[in-house]
Amino acid sequence: MRWSNFYLFTSREVPSDAEVVSHQLMSRAGMLRKMAAGIYVYQPLAWRSIQKLMTIVRREMEVAGSAELAMPAVQPAELWEESGRWQKYGKELLRIRDRHDRDFCFGPTHEEIITDVVRRDISSYRQLPVNLYQIQTKFRDEIRPRFGLMRGREFLMKDAYSFHADDDSLHEAYEAMHAAYCRILEACGLNYTVVEADSGAIGGSWSHEFMVLAETGEDAIVHCDECGYAANVEKATTELVAPETEPAAEATEVPTPGMSSCAEVAEHLGVPIETLVKTLLYETDQGIVAVVLRGDRDVNEVKLGNELDATFVRLASEQQVREVTGAPVGFAGPVGLEGVTLMADESVRELKAFISGANAADTHLQGVTWGRDAEPARWVDVVQVGGGDPCPRCSSTLVESRGVESGHIFKLGTVYSEPMGCTFSFGEGEEKPMTMGCYGFGVSRTIAACIEQNHDEDGIIWPRPLAPFEVLVVALNSKDETVVAAAEEIYGELKDAGYDVLFDDRDERPGVKFKDADLVGFPVRVVIGAKSLANGQIEVSDRRSKGRQDVARESVVEAVSKLLEDA
Ligand code: ATP
Ligand code: MG
Predict the structure, then answer these.
(1) Residue 28 needs a FRET pair 20 to 30 A away by CA distance; which of 76, 176, 188, 386 works?
(2) What pLDDT is attached to residue 201?
(3) Quick one: CA dihedral 549, 554, 558, 564, positive or negative?
């Protein structure tokens, strides 16, 4: 492809809403055009990368035994009512109404549609298992669309679904998909890790996420180098050791004027903060919930939502805190707290005596004991786990890092097949719901994640498998006929050798061409200039190391192929 024929316009402007580097670089490299919040045109350069990724994904889906189909993006509400999600899914679901006043939605995911397809086609265990996938545009009305392709509202996803007669068969498909996702990310040349995950709005019992590692990733993950445990912090657990405390004959009040934080109280009383508990009030769709946890710790709201099976949890307002506790924020405690569900985190279970708020202004209680003074309705695990915490499996130390969630696989069981009557027959006229798995891979997000992981101050550094073009051929002076002729020839040779080549034949200054080459991030650059050409030399360089070398005119293809091997 010649640059003059291609549609590629770089820019110095960074859109004001581009906070992350992938969004900034994709905008500057002319890959994206924003139409509305979270809705973009994939310009030709972006589309080439996306198509390369889709080719890799399709190849690995075939290996995993999944067949491609294409489902409608617009889905009838009736199916969502059958599964129960029309009510449950919330505002991320873009609901639309047709001219006959019938309700539809623009699909954020396709469990309902695929379950409807399969329940009509499959009736016997002999037809199972089945495994189907599509690559399609999804729409989720995300509350904060941001970061360009990382969190769009309209985005490209590969979604696969499998249906089985039993759990063993599901497990086999799940493992095959797990392996396929690893191979996809490896084939893309990305550095990634697989973590245990929360199963979120999709439901189900077991899931893993595939994280492309990048400091700028939205997800925090922890892992243990010792035993290999790895989890999203929305799912991670830990084993916090409770400090030894002396039991007290009774709980007694201590004045703590104006001390509304555990740190202040601990310092004032001269005790370790681990012997304090904090009590946080949350407003949820199930009423107000009080959560007690160690004084130095935070609640992970996703874990809390899962414990409660709640559709929303948010910190209670100051006024709600006053109504429930009779005190300002900062003095809540489990003793005598009424009218709310009291939950306590495992991190405070073993405390023999502890300090808590007294549900009275400027007052705390000392020597509080579970059982005698207060008792939670439920013990839960809602604590935010982080680097430095003990590994829940082997007690060695967890390490924290960040990543971009590129794929997410779930064992769904029968959460869709049961309400939707997707059953099969076995034995003597017996029927049961199929057990299901679903497997999502963010195609557009993975392109952004690739850039988060692979860039420098000058631009993108594409790993070869996802590069829109593998090689850029630059004619340094587009008015010098000898240079242009040699460049044309080399361009032809590289194309004939099977490489994806862009020929920068624009009438631009060398500086502009070099800047653009670095910004767009072609893995290998070939520069034809008058001076070196006169000596029979051509400059070849690779984007990652920026190491330049002059090679003989006849060896250009060989030199490019060597550099591409490592790109
Ligand atoms: P997140 O927690 O980031 O919102 P999710 O758990 O909602 O993701 P899934 O429902 O598992 O995502 O969707 C499968 C894949 O689709 C994700 O792993 C991700 O790669 C991609 N994806 C999800 N939401 C978006 C989005 N708003 N923009 C781009 N890609 C997305
Ligand atoms: Mg989401």
Answers:
(1) 188
(2) 54
(3) positive
β-bridge partners, 289: 282, 341
Q: Closest Cα to atom 25, ligand 1: which residue?
A: 151
- Cα(202) to centroid(ligand 2), Å: 10
Whether 333 and 320 have beta carbons less than 8 Å apart is answered as: no
Closest CA to 487 of 472, 500, 499: 472
Instruction: For residues 3-29, give the mean pLDDT.
Output: 94
Assign 311 a pLDDT band (cuts: 50, 70, 90).
Answer: confident
Residue count of the chain: 567
Burial 292-308 (b: 16+ CB within 10 A, else e): bbbbebebbbbbbbbbb
Q: Using 50, 70 and 90 to split pLDDT, how confident is the model at 200?
A: low
Residue-wise pLDDT tens digits, 112-132? 999 999 999 999 999 999 999
User: CA 345 to CA 291: how far, in whole Å?
Assistant: 7
| Mean pLDDT of the region 183-209 | 85
Task: Please choose, from the candidates 540, 448, 461, the residue with its C-alpha nearest in 3D space to the C-alpha of residue 493.
Answer: 540
Q: State how far the alpha carbon of 453 is from the alpha carbons of 157, 217, 417, 544, in Å.
A: 20, 9, 39, 12
